[in-house]
C-alpha cells in the first residue's frame, strides 16, 4: 500500500504539473484589427502567467527596414503612445498608418525623418537584429527612453490567416496594411518570451507590417515571428538586401503598377526620379 500510495502521488503530481503548463501559456488574441478604444488599450488578460518561452523557435525575424536610428529622449512610452512620431518627423507626408501600406512605404525613398531634438535626421535603411539579444533595440545611441520603428513586407501566395507572436520591452504597437492589430504596454519578460499570439489576416501579395516599440529603461528588445505554416508559405523582405535600394529592388514585383495615363505614381515612376 505504501508503494501504491507513492506511485499514486507521483501520478497526481505529474498531472498537476502538466495542467499548470496550460495555465502558463500565451493567450490568443482574435477579432482584430483594433478599433476605437481598443487602439491604445492593453489586451485582457495580460499578466505574467501568460508568459511563454519561444527561445527554440527558428522563425524569429532578423532583418528589418526603418529609420537608421532610434527616436531618442522620449517622455516614456506611456505618454508617447498616442503621438505619431513618423508624422511629426515627416511633416505629415508619411504617418504610422500610411507607413504600414505600400504607398506610404514607397514614399520613404524620398522623405527622411527629421527629429531635431530626438536623434536628428534619420534616413531609411535595412538593419539586422539578434533575437536572442535582450538589448537589440540599442543602435549606437542612448539606451533608455527610445523608440524603434521597423518594417517588413510579407509576400503571401494567397489570402490567409496567420498567427504572429511579438516579444517586446516595453510598449509595442503593430500595424498591417493600414490597420492596427496589436497594442501592449507591458513588457513580455525576455527577448524571446511572448504574452500573446495574435491572429491576423494577410492579403494575397505584398503585406506591409510596421512594428513600433518604445523602451523606458533596462532591457530593450523587440522581436516577432509567425506560426510555422505561415513562414513556410510566405517570403519576408528584407531578405538578402542590406540597404534601402536593395530592399526596394526585392519588393519591386509586389508594388502596384497602374495602367499608363493614370495619375497614380508607380514604382517605375519613382525609380526614374
Describe the protein.
This protein is of the alpha+beta class and 273 residues long. It has one domain. It has eight helices and 15 strands. The chain has helices spanning 2-23, 77-80, 85-89, 96-99, 102-107, 228-233, 244-251, 267-272; strands at residues 27-29, 52-53, 63-67, 113-115, 120-122, 124-128, 146-156, 160-169, 171-176, 179-184, 193-194, 196-202, 205-215, 221-226, 235-237. The protein has a five-stranded antiparallel sheet with strand order 10-9-13-7-15. Strands 1-12-8-14 form a four-stranded mixed sheet. The radius of gyration is 21 Å and the shape is globular.
Largest sheet: 5 strands, antiparallel
Helix content: 10-25%
- Total helical elements: 8
What gap, in angstroms, lies between the N and C termini? 86 Å
The number of E-state strands comes to: 15
Tell me the strand percentage band: 25-35%
* Backbone structural class: alpha+beta
Radius of gyration: 21 Å
Spatial sequence of strands, sheet with the most strands:
10-9-13-7-15
**Shape descriptor:** globular
Features:
273 residues, alpha+beta, 4-stranded mixed β-sheet, globular
